[in-house]
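Worked problem 6 (solution included).
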Amino acid sequence: MELSPSPVLSSLSALSPLDGRYVSKTDNLRPILSEAGFMHYRVRVEVMWLQALSQAGFAEITPFSDKAKAFLDELVNRFSVNDAARIKEIEAITNHDVKAVEYWLKESLGLGLPPELAQLNPREVNVDAAITAELQGAAEFIHFACTSEDINNTSHGMMIKAARDQVVLPALDGIIDRLRDLAHRYAALSMLSRTHGQTASPTTLGKEIANVVARLQRSRKKITVVEILGKMNGAVGNYNAHLSAYPDFNWESFAREVVEKRLGLTFSQYTIQIEPHDYIAELFDAIARTNTILIDLNRDIWSYISLGYFKQITRPGEIGSSTMPHKVNPIDFENSEGNLGLANALLRHMAEKLPISRWQRDLTDSTVLRNIGMALGYTVLAYDSCLRGLNKLEVNAEKIAADLQDAWEVLAEPVQTVMRRYGIENPYERLKELTRGRGITRQELHEFIAGLELPEAVKKELMAMTPASYTGLASTLAEQI
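Solution. The predicted structure is:
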């Protein structure tokens, strides 16, 4: 039996879990990357372009009064979901989203709507008649000489920049900070390594965590250094329309100033109709690589929980299994891994697809760009799960120590290395015969050392070594991160 279609969207009827089950985890992205957020940024760009034109020195559009400038700023700052809904009403008739923003802006200035939108119910706007009169002459400078992509690409740039700086990086920093704390706390906690799943030279828990911190720090830098680009150069990137109206004006310099000083982006000088999106590919590649590091982390912690190296703090009322009462499942790390996979599938598709556009443009980028919120939403959701998992971990030092104490065979490496130093023949082969494929006891190892032609002081040093003490610079490296 199917549910009846719901006439009202809610977290229970949402198609995407980002707006359903996980709605609270992605709240901070929604004002930036939602459809309403996109409209808000478009309004911002249109207003910034209009205000810049008013100060360009053209006889046909004089500088705005302080009251008019303040009113325009308020249109941006107080943009609401209701305003976005009105733009959608207009778009339902125009079938053009950017033109709908232009018409909404004119309506908001008290200038009304064109006759073809007469079927819409009038919207009461709160604007001083003097401001409307002042802006009447500037009405046709709204969206002046712009192609839709001049508005869209700069809006996307500001959206991506805000999402990166205000949401993605702080969420990533939370993980890095937590891991750094753990690396310092457990810098000296000796732990058995496993290469190929087999016992290997010991390390410390803190050093293994520090390895991840170092990788994430480097990867984070790659995210931060990507320049977010924007262009305002017309239908095919040549300022054709601009120069037809004002041929003696330096449009390139003007566009650069608007993009860089007013919109806070880096100016993209050479484009077709669209900004080529190479920077988006660079950024999303960098985020995807960071996500891959975290997939690796999630899987390792999952495995260490399975070994008993970590316990998980339980919460009253929480259930691990519907039939096995004892279970405390590592669900945070599993959820994080799964959502990182979803995020990377979207991020990598965008990185591969967006820089490709037939001739001067096709529309395949438009529908893909509308999924930026999905890609970054799954990323942020995964970061949240990972951090929650890290905050619930308890180290089982007794289990870690017990595994290490039972692995005396790992000291075959230092013994054969010292034998090499003193010129003893076939050290590797002799230790291989003693240890390969089986564990040995402390007594067996000491008997082997006692029979070596080594200085007595060196034998004592080797016999004083334990699996727990054989960690090299691990603790120092962990403390330095």
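Discussion: DSSP finds 20 helices and six strands in the chain.
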